Amino acid sequence: MTEAGSFAEKVKQQADIVRVVGEYVRLKKTGKDFSGLCPFHQEKTPSFTVSPIKQIFYCFGCGRGGDVYNFVMDMEKCEFPEAVKLVAEKCGIAIPRQKEHSPEERKENQQRSVLVEMHREAQAFFAKQLEGTLEGKAARAYLEDRGLDKEAIAQFGIGYAPSGGDALLRHLKHKYNEKLLVESGLVSRDQSAGRLFDRFRRRITFPISNESGKIVAFGARALGDDMPKYLNSPETLIYSKSNLLYHMDRAKEGIRRQDFAILVEGYMDAIAVARAGISNVVASCGTSLAEPQIKLLQRFTKRVIVNYDPDTAGQAATERSLSLLLEQDFELRVLALPPVGDKKADPDLFIRERGKDEYLKLLKEAPPYVDYLIARARQMDLTTGEGKQRALNFLLPYIRKIPNAILRSEWATRIAQQLRIDEPLLRSALSKAAKERRSEIKTSPELIGRAAKPVERRLIRMLAEAQGFRQELAKHLQNARLYHGLETEKIFAALVIASLSGQSVEATEVGAVLEERDRRLLFEILFEEANEPTWEEAMSCVEALQHRQAEHELADVQRSIEANPASPEMRGLLEKKQELMRRLAAAR
Ligand SMILES: [Zn+2]
Hints:
Elements: H1 7-14, H2 17-22, E1 28-30, E2 33-36, E3 48-51, E4 56-59, E5 65-67, H3 68-76, H4 80-90, H5 103-132, H6 134-145, H7 150-155, E6 159-161, H8 167-172, H9 178-183, E7 187-189, E8 196-198, E9 203-209, E10 215-222, E11 230-232, H10 248-258, E12 261-264, H11 267-275, E13 281-283, H12 291-298, E14 303-306, H13 312-327, E15 331-334, H14 347-354, H15 356-365, H16 369-378, H17 385-399, H18 405-419, H19 423-440, H20 454-465, H21 470-479, H22 489-500, H23 507-512, H24 516-526, H25 535-563, H26 570-587
Parallel strand pairs: 12-13, 12-14, 14-15
Antiparallel strand pairs: 1-2, 2-3, 3-4, 4-5, 6-9, 7-8, 9-10, 10-11
Bound molecules: zinc ion (ZN).
């Protein structure tokens, strides 16, 4: 944990937990705190809370909580030293001296940076091939034809991989060993002869960067009729297709600012849209969206306009993506571009042929996803009962994902009208679906600790936060053994010990010594709305505890008296009873 005066403590003081958490979770200000959807468990309404004042977070759903380091450790699945380093980096705080990692870690980190460096070199090489070689000329002509001028080529780092088969290999092999070359995915090994050769040959190359802008892979389009038309880097130590969205490194600012993202299929589409001046565009670079990509996206926005290709594969991908995004409660619209002439138009083609203003106009008018789905259903054969049933079956899974009942009902009416389906029939199907939905919703984990009495909760809060009199209060509670036997006894004990030490009390550290149930309760209490505590209030809480203590003692005495009327201690017991009754009466 953070020792006083340590680097970790210094970083923690400078780091703002809201900013750090905000890089992973979309936070909204709610009163003094911030809240958002918990990244540690599935939820649709935010129960994840961050306090800028206390610099801690807590999830009322799953019970995770702690300081900025606990958050980063949980999020990045790393150990404490790594979390300190990460937070320091995020906040631009210089790290004094590299801490020694395990040999494996060191090796992997080293390998990662070598692979990144190799990709940077490959990109420079490809760019040179495009710009300065005879072979590259044909590629330049192709790009120009696609509306990509010099500026665009430079902006997106587009290059050309020559046809020779070992051009890049020859360029890199004096610097990197064979093993690394193969691991980079830039070079492949011939299965039979074991010979190395370039993965990308006679292709236009598009560097694929990770979220922080480092090139980790390439997408490559065949210049001729080579198959496949598009070829990507394989999965490597630095590249995982499902973890990455193309153009996210440049789009994230725009997405955050405008609070929506445009999702397209390929990098050519993303480039075309970005070139049209719309920066908040990302490409899934594959036909379907993967879950990690959705997680990445929702760190920046919960609103998406899906603009996939209008072909059959694109439609299927649109519907699959809609379904996945709806599950995560995204607000969705779909832009289905009209054909250009007799050609089905992807964003790239559309912008080239019809201009960016036309695209922008359609983007603004992009309908909610349900309209898109109804339009799709209307393309089905609706003349027969069977056809209608099919259309309905196509729509129902989406409709039942609409969380709002009024909206759901409105859509039911519209669907009935548009598909000419008997409305009562549709409604009964919907309500059946709604029931299934309800049964799907998981009951939230029980709110633990509600049992703790307000007085206890208040005192716990004061022990944790009332800098001015915390120590004094701890003494009172300790001397009179006031918290003994309470449900919250262990929380009190931990806080009292911490307070009596005279050191500052860190909720996270106190939480760390508690059992799960108590730890949760402590965090809950720390996040309750509360006024500034005063000593008077503290004393009245102490009195209330004394009163309760007396009541309990009285009950005990009474039980002893009744249990054994002939006891030799009867006289003492009766005296004790009298005294307790006096005390209770005086307090009233
Ligand atoms: Zn949670």
